[in-house]
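From the methods appendix. Each design record in this collection lists the tokenized structure first, followed by the designed amino acid sequence. Records were kept in a plain field format so they could be parsed without special tools. The example shown here is representative of the layout used throughout.

RECORD:
FOLD TOKENS (240 positions):
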């Protein structure tokens, strides 16, 4: 069974390799489901790892319906990854109704050509998962990462098994709450790949008397924070 570790730093990537992972998915900010890591991190990981590296291409947190400008950034990041010599791309795009955005996903896959392509957990929002996996097979995706449309892959095991049985060429990789206590269930179900972070916390500093820097106001999955033209214009006029 292939074991992919979701690594959020150079240290995590090195630990995953030492632990025996088959490959990593490199990303940043696991707390929001992951976003594209910096170019510097991608280069350092590529230079220091021997196992395959797949890079998450997701320009922001929140939903998976992107503007033209956001999509342009995604394509540029894929080009950088190809130039850097990574092994795979992890990405995905949905329409506003959460159906698969076939045209943009096709563009992502074609832009990634020569690298492996995984459609990420945006898949867990599609209304018809079996139809979506057939569409992804037609488009040439190599893998789909999914929790079986449940809060954890263990709870979504029935759908994961069904998707695996329905697929022909695409690998169904279980991800979401995969840990030691349940990992063998996915192997027993016939799945060929699992995805996990295996994280623990460290590097603690005491900040109980400090103001918080995390902003819940910006953590919205159904809408995206963007600089407001009039708000900024009025402030600039006020102080200039």
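DESIGN:
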């Amino acid at each position: 069974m292939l074991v992919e570790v979701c690594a959020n730093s150079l240290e995590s990537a090195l630990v995953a390799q030492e632990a025996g992972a088959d490959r990593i998915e490199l990303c940043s900010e696991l707390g929001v489901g992951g976003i594209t890591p910096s170019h510097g991190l991608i280069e350092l990981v590529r230079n220091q790892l021997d196992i395959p590296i797949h890079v998450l291409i997701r320009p922001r947190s929140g939903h998976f319906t992107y503007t033209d400008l956001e999509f342009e950034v995604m394509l540029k990041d894929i080009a950088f990854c190809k130039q850097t010599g990574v092994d795979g791309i992890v990405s995905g795009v949905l329409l506003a109704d959460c159906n698969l955005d076939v045209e943009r996903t096709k563009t992502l896959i074609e832009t990634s050509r020569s690298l492996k392509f995984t459609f990420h957990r945006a898949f867990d929002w599609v209304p018809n998962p079996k139809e979506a996996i057939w569409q992804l097979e037609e488009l040439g995706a190599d893998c789909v990462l999914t929790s079986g449309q449940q809060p954890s892959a263990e709870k979504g095991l029935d759908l994961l098994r069904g998707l695996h049985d329905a697929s022909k060429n695409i690998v169904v990789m279980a991800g979401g709450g995969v840990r030691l206590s349940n990992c063998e269930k996915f192997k027993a179900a016939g799945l060929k790949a699992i995805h996990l972070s295996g994280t623990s916390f460290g590097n603690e500093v005491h900040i109980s008397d400090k103001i918080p820097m995390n902003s819940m106001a910006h953590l919205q999955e159904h809408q995206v924070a963007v600089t407001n033209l009039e708000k900024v214009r009025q402030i600039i006029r006020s102080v200039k």
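APPENDIX NOTE: The chain has one domain: 2-200+217-239.
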